[in-house]
């Protein structure tokens, strides 16, 4: 019988997905942006710069989430 992904534990499958995602992230240059993606990123950056709101520090956001758990 050939093993399948279902034969792995959930923990093993999660680790496999994390490793796969990390390998994709390491090769981001292999996936160039399309003109549409570049235009959308420029639009979002312009909106962020015009707004001027830097948001909240990540530590504050995480602390708020932890309080609600």
UniProtKB/TrEMBL annotation:
User: Which InterPro entries does this chain map to?
Assistant: CHP02574_addiction_mod
Source taxon at top rank: Bacteria
Q: What is this protein called?
A: Addiction module protein
């Amino acid at each position: 019988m050939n093993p399948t992904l279902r034969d792995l534990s959930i923990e093993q499958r999660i680790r496999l997905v994390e490793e796969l995602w990390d390998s994709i992230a390491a090769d981001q240059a292999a996936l160039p942006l399309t003109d549409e993606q570049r235009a959308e990123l420029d639009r979002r950056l312009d909106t962020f710069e015009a707004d001027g709101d830097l948001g909240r520090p990540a530590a504050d956001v995480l602390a708020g989430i932890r309080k609600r758990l």
